[in-house]
Each structure stands twice: as structure tokens, then as C-alpha cells.
Write a structure and sequence with these properties.
Length: about 80
């Protein structure tokens, strides 16, 4: 289970990616937290778990998810 500080860190990181669609931001935060917890349950510490999840998402991954979501909503 993540600490409040770890969760706040993830919230700040996602918010720093300028995800403006609030429901999407909340879903992404939840998804990232769950993925990090899964990695931590496999024996990784928070920092390493976060890096592993971040590498799977990619550098612009969250922005791309937002872009794709907004495109789908507009259709």
C-alpha cells in the first residue's frame, strides 16, 4: 500500500503532465498507483517500482492518452 506522501508524489507528477480532463487524470492516477503497488508487491521499492511503471508509460505517454481520449470524445 502506498503512503500518503507517495500518492501525493504521483498526483503531482501526473498533474505536472498537464492532464486537463479531470476524470482522465483521476483514472490515470489510480491506474499508476495500482501498477506501482503491484510492482512493490513483487519486491521492488517505491522508487524502482515508479521507474518501472514510468518506463512502460513512456515519456509522453500520459499526454498521448489524453490526446486520444479527447479525439474519441469529439467523435
Amino acid at each position: 500500500m502506498l503512503t500518503i506522501e507517495q500518492t501525493d508524489y504521483i498526483i503531482n507528477e501526473v498533474s505536472g503532465q498537464h492532464i486537463h480532463f479531470s476524470h482522465l487524470r483521476d483514472d490515470l492516477i489510480d491506474h499508476i498507483c495500482c501498477d506501482i503497488e503491484s510492482e512493490m508487491n513483487s519486491g521492488f521499492g517505491f522508487d524502482d517500482a515508479y521507474k518501472r511503471v514510468q518506463s512502460r508509460i513512456g515519456y509522453n505517454g500520459l499526454k498521448q492518452v489524453q490526446k486520444n481520449t479527447l479525439l474519441l470524445i469529439d467523435k
